[in-house]
Amino acid sequence: MSAEATNPVSAAEATGPDAPSRRRARPRIDLRRLGRAALLGPATRDRLPDAIGHVAEAHRAHHPDADLAVLRRAYVLAEHSHRGQFRKSGEPYITHPLAVTLILAELGAETTTLTAALLHDTVEDTEVTLDQVRAQFGDEVAYLVDGVTKLEKVDYGAAAEPETFRKMLVATGNDVRVMSIKLADRLHNMRTLGVMRPEKQVRIAKVTRDVLIPLAERLGVQALKTELEDLVFAILHPEEYEATRALIAENTGAGDALAAIADSVSAVLRDADITAEVLVRPRHFVSVHRVRLKRGDLRGSDFGRLLVLVGEDADCYAVLGELHTCFTPVISEFKDFIAAPKFNLYQSLHTAVAAPDGAVAEVLIRTHQMHQVAEAGVVALGNPYTPPTGSDGPEPAEDGERVDPTRPGWLSRLLDWQQATPDPDTFWTSLRADLAEDQEITVFRADGGTLGLPAGASCVDAAYAQHGDAAHGCLGARVNGRLATLSTVLNDGDTVQPLLAQDTASGPSPEWLEHARTPAARIAITAWLQAHPEAVGAPEADPRPPVSFTADRRSGAKLQADLPEATATDAVVRPAGCCTPVPPDEITGFQVRGGSVTVHRTGCAVVDTMRRLGRAPVTVHWGDTAECRVTLVAESFGRPRLLADLTEAIATAGVAVVAATIEPPSEQRVRHTYTLQLPDAAGLPALMRAMRDVPGVYDVSRARHPDSHGE
Fold first, then answer.
1. How far apart are the first and last CA of the chain?
2. Distance from CA of residue 430 to its chain's centroid?
3. Sorting pLDDT into bands at 50, 70 and 90, what band is 433?
4. Is 57 tagged catalytic?
């Protein structure tokens, strides 16, 4: 039984529960329309062969001004070179490149891609050479044909598959259209998989599920992805597939509920003077199966969704406002993928509304252009390597690379780490794990750039994504301005700043692997640990008690208080330990038990507390001396020579250390507390800056004196 016989319904969400909903629906990209293609028949020089009439019609629908002459020449060459060859199904082999080309034409691919699709098997399977293709069709077509040729004749054995897809990724990195042709090629092969042995069907279906479907999702080619999902579903889960097919067959009238809601939505938008097209989109088999698992018993409105198409981005939000005003919205279902597009270029507003009878309809709101990209992904963008009008070449990116909307961050990262993975098994495992991450977050770098990371990524992943192997010396990070450990999980929109040590000898610890989600980070960490086995085997240092040392004490800055003579004789005026004021800070004082006066900075929280308690402030001011004593806390990441570098920075500033305490490391963080005697209080800001500049130190602040007991 062929794949078409196994899956009797059209794919790409064409499995609507009833006929009326299909009549109301916008014509979907029908990827199964081409059956057995006609062989090359009599045709005049200026007329297209009948066999590619479907291709020409589909291509002109997207590109009215396309030159079809090159397609005619490509078909003539392909048919002549494949003549006498047959597929395992018994069909003439030319039907395969024709079907692949039609798939891409329906998706909106440009002429060069279609030409390469017609010729994609000629160099591999016939006597046609790559030089002949280049001579007749140019370098661009030859490059695409060569890229696809390297991916053909796949041996689906365990050892061959990883290397095959490694080659595919390398080819894709240079021109994403190679991947588009490969995906269309796999789709047609999956449709005709029924002629193969069952065990081979299962093996190919699993590879399609694990790699090709996620790649189609990443490239945004939903029309390809949905049909591949249904074909794989039928092979790997035949019982669930049959149950889903029966469920759809039993609910042939279920579309009436959605049709009624669609009529109401159309009326609301007409009254609001919003030009929009409201359509019913039946769910495909896998989508129905997932909804049934999520919700249990299905209602009529669960077998499809409403699609609202408008002209401009602003109209999308106008439609959303009308729907939420005139219907009861299900707020938990709202998602804005226009303001924040998905990693695969997808843009839409998602919401759900409840009808008066309680039926809930999911609604997708997008422009016509967004709809084309949602269906065809990168294929709908045409040739990304054609310079913009009036330009001499592609616009360079800020980092010096060409701007390419079809090479999003996930693909660049994937290409980077695959080069660092010589072991095929490790590559295969990492590839499947990376593709399984179907959600991506965007975090901002401290320098203003952005990083695309999989959901659940940590600061470890951000460090390696931004700095590569230099992240081996990462000590920690700031997330949204605050210190964070490397294990901190990042959220969409966070600002992250990895903090690196200048000591190039430092490296990651094995625990980092527990927090790394991206293959790039895991592969880099593993490679370093394997190259430095002595670091892995080094025992953890025993917890150290606090270390303290004391130097000669000197007098601090002079403080004077304006007190009545009766109380001023024995009064002691001292700086408060909570805010450690030093000249030239603005200060105020309060008398405490025993008649002493404690002096605070005017911005100290204790000042507000004392005033709320009704305590009268005492006027205080600095004496003539410029000396002062201050306690500073330096928070840092542990590393060799950190204490020596800090004390050197202090000594270079001409400051004496009165006392110092170093607390035991906690999660790679170390807290140093210094009591310092400054010859001139004006030098305090410069001293704090010098201490912050010490590698590994992320903050220096004034703190409570170690011997301070408050008020």
1. 88
2. 16
3. low
4. no
Structural contact between residues 97 and 121, judged by C-beta atoms closer than 8 angstroms: yes
- Please tell me the predicted confidence (pLDDT) of residue 324: 92
Q: What separation in angstroms does the CA of 256 have from each of 86, 291, 298?
A: 46, 19, 14
d(CA 55, CA 53): 5
pLDDT of residue 341: 75
Annotated active-site residue 124? The verdict is: yes
Report pLDDT digits (tens) over 300-334: 778 888 999 999 989 999 999 999 999 989 888 88
Q: Does residue 388 surpass a pLDDT of 70?
A: no
Q: Which among 4, 30, 125, 503 is annotated as catalytic?
A: 125
Burial 543-578 (b: 16+ CB within 10 A, else e): eeeeeeeeeeeeebbebbbebeeeeeeeeebebbbb
pLDDT at 158: 44
Cβ atoms within 10 Å of 101's Cβ, excluding its own: 33
Q: How many whole angstroms separate alpha carbon 553 and alpha carbon 544?
A: 26
d(CA 544, CA 555): 32
In this structure, of 77-91, 158-172, 248-262, 341-355, the range with the lowest mean pLDDT score is 158-172
- Give residue 367's pLDDT band: very low, low, confident or very high (50, 70, 90): very high
**pLDDT of 12:** 34
Listing DSSP states for 296-346 in one string gives: SSPPGGGGEEEEEEESSHHHHHHHHHHHHHHSEE-GGG-EETTTS--TTS-
Q: Is pLDDT larger for residue 596 or for residue 12?
A: 596
Q: Tokens 């080309």 belong to which residue?
A: 101
Q: 440-445 and 495-500: which strand pairing?
A: parallel
Rounded Cα distance between 30 and 34, Å, is: 9
| Mean pLDDT value of segment 252-267 | 82
User: How many angstroms separate the CA atoms of 58 and 615, rounded?
Assistant: 86
Query: What pLDDT sits at residue 615?
Result: 80
Residue 39 makes CB contacts below 8 A (sequence gap 6+) with 51, 79, 92, 94
* Average pLDDT of the chain, as a whole number: 75
Is pLDDT above 70 for 505? no
Which residue shows structure tokens 């005017």? Answer: 602
Q: Measure the CA–CA gap between 353 and 368, rounded to whole angstroms.
A: 22
Q: Of 4, 124, 416, 635, which is the active-site residue?
A: 124
Bridge partners, 669 (sequence order)? 637, 666
Any idea of the CA torsion for 456, 460, 462, 464, to the nearest 10 degrees? -130
> The tokens of 323 are what?
């729907």
Interatomic CA distance for residues 118 and 98, integer angstroms = 6
Largest Cα separation within the chain, whole Å, is 123
Q: At what angle do helices 222-236 and 238-250 cross, to 10 degrees?
A: 110
Residues 6+ away with beta carbon under 8 Å from 271: none
Report, as an integer, the average pLDDT of 532-557: 48
